[in-house]
Amino acid sequence: MVREQCPVCSASDIEELIVLDDYPFAGNGVVRADVAKKVPTGTLSVGVCRVCSTLFQMDPISMDDLDAMLQRQPYPLTQAETGMEVAETDRFLEAFRKYAPPQGKVLDVGCGTGSLMNTLKKLGYEVSGVEANPKAVEVAKKQGFDVVEGRFEEGMFPDETFDIIVTRSVLDHAIEPSTLLATMENILKPGGILACEVPNISRVFRRSAFGGFNHHHLMYWTTPTLRYALTYQGLDLLGGFEESYIAMFGQKADKGEDAIEPVPPTDVDIDQAFEDVDRFLERKDRLAEELPAELEKHCPNGVVVLGAGTPTVDMLYYTGMEEMVNKVTTTDKTRVGGVLGGYDFEIAQMDFDKHDTEAVLVSSERRQEELLEHLESYLDHGGRVIRFRPGIEMI
User: 80-89, 129-138, 372-381: lowest mean pLDDT where?
Assistant: First the structure.
């Protein structure tokens, strides 16, 4: 299905922005070792709406392909077991306490293993969830949570059932986000709260080396486009935040004479979005040429990559420098033992106490500062660190 209209504003003035041929269907970048040889590749086409500046897959993959990618990912662990995404979760919970009522029925759409539900239950909420990953559902149910297995869709719940709906990192995987949001709005009680969080593509364009476009991200959100999508459904925006992720809290409003009017991106928003895109594309192409040359010059014995995910897949895809990589490591226990999607690198646990590596390349964008703190001892022992800010920096 090649899109002919923008999935947010329905405008037909859309154009193709990026085409990646033979890009691996690797989801978040890591697959289980037992299926690593079966990862297919395909063309990834990203388009942009010239009217509202929303970015999206031009030819979105099917639900079957999405489910297949989900099945290839490493088996999920609880957040307590991985220790990942703590800063983002804490920031979200701070905003949640500010904008959500202190009690009520909560539906977590895309609840994963139940980490957020566990926190909200301790705060006194009545929680339930929806999750597409069967393995994650198993983990959540073992903790006693009521979870519906499958993709969230119309008819799962009666109208006006929940006081609060939480959806984190879900709208970026939606083929039709407007339909998804309309269904969520319908099952909210009058005055109910929708708490929505998505990855921030604006930050990626301004700070990332190679992007983050992949087959399982069907939508790429900015603050203006997410605001437009939520107000289009009649939600009264109460507030939120913008960091690596964008969070917005909207309240279900009356649809009579005082209905909320949609708030489209301004001309300034749209101009800024296209300026960010142009700068990113120019930088990406430049880095794809410069990085292999810099590593050959300064790290002739190769590097250990710290970061196992889409940024590393992107880096290798654009540079073709896999022969310069000795090992790929991570601090995320979920990914240890997996394989980098589309490549032969088995993911190892990063040992910050070892100083026998000549050079470490930090591919992660969001966690650079945190990882550099862990690498202080390595640097003190004469190690070299390469990172992107978003240009190449040798430390």
Answer: 80-89
